[in-house]
Amino acid sequence: MRDLDRHTGARAGLGEDDIARTAELVKVLDSKMRLQILLLLDDGERVVRELVAELGKSQPLISQHLRVLRGAGLVTSTRNGREVLYSLAQPDVVRVIQDLAALTNYTEARDELAERRNARRHPEDYASSDGSAGAAIIDPPASVRPEIDPGLAPSTPQPRRD
Predict the structure, then answer these.
(1) Where would I find the H helices in 29-79?
(2) What's the whole-model pTM score?
(3) Where are the transmembrane segments (predicted)?
(4) How high is the pLDDT of residue 125?
(5) DSSP code string of 71-127
(6) Which residues contact residue 69 at a Cβ distance below 8 angstroms, ignoring those fewer than 6 apart?
(7) Cα–chain-centroid distance for residue 77?
(8) Which of 10, 101, 103, 137 is deepest in the core (most CB within 10 A)?
(9) CA distances (Å), 144 to each of 114, 119, 136, 141, 152, in order?
């Protein structure tokens, strides 16, 4: 049952319909241009010509992206004379974008850490032009180290003999 829960999302309190709607929303957010539009609309209502000027893209392209965002319920539009004002219908989407950006920063930091670890394992692949392999990692002096490092102590119990 646990495997079933993991695959259906039930453990997270999400049903199949929730997962399907979320997948559709992720598809809508899968565009740098749409993310930029949402972030600009977070500052206030805009007309298409303002978005065109800010983003440096064509009016038809911006309008197409706005149509997708409106269809997803993230953006609303109201007519003001000859122009249409666009605004955020779901302001919380900006927080989601910020959370995703933070997650990508975490992923980049994790990738950088993995690259550093790999460089330590294979220093010949990462040697600099002067022949050095970079900074050496030095153990801290004994005065600042704990007597017993719990991270290095084996935690597996010894086998019992009958």
Answers:
(1) 32-41, 48-55, 59-71
(2) 0.60
(3) none
(4) 58
(5) HTTSEEEEEETTEEEEEES-THHHHHHHHHHHHHHHHHHHHHHHHHHHHHH-GGGS-
(6) 28, 34, 37, 38, 75
(7) 28
(8) 10
(9) 27, 27, 19, 6, 16
> What's the CA dihedral at 48, 50, 27, 109 to 10 degrees?
180
The CA distances from residue 35 to 32, 58, 98, 120, in Å, are 5, 16, 10, 38
SS3 47: strand
86 near 77, Cβ under 8 Å?
Answer: yes
**Sign of CA pseudo-dihedral 20, 62, 53, 77:** negative
Please give the distance of CA 53 from its chain centroid, rounded to a whole number. Answer: 27
**Tokens read off for 66:** 């706005």
pLDDT (tens place) for every residue of the chain, 162 residues total: 444 445 555 557 889 999 999 899 999 999 999 999 999 999 999 999 999 999 999 999 999 999 999 999 999 999 989 999 999 999 999 999 998 888 877 767 677 777 777 777 766 655 555 555 555 556 666 665 556 555 555 566 667 776
